[in-house]
Amino acid sequence: MKLLKQHIEALIFTTEQAITPDEMISCLKAVYGWDLKKDDIIAITDELKVKYASEEFSYELNEIAGGFQFLSKKNFMLPFM
Q1: CATH number at residue 26
Q2: Which of 48, 51, 58, 70 could lock 76 by a disulfide, CB 3.0 to 4.6 Å apart?
Q3: pTM of the predicted model, to two decimals?
Q4: The pLDDT of residue 28
């Protein structure tokens, strides 16, 4: 399971809406044959939340409807004109 964290990060970045841990598990199983558990995904998403909470990023990892999605941080959102 080389670069598992990066694969999960990429899955979250490339989806248009929140992706659930079960969807990530299914995708990684189909593509790489990896047998992952939900706890594996949750542990990595917890690490990613901490990483993207840093001030150096303008976006953060959010939990939405049982899934995960990267969204702009509130202080970087521009008001509509």
Answers
A1: 1.10.10.10
A2: 58
A3: 0.87
A4: 97
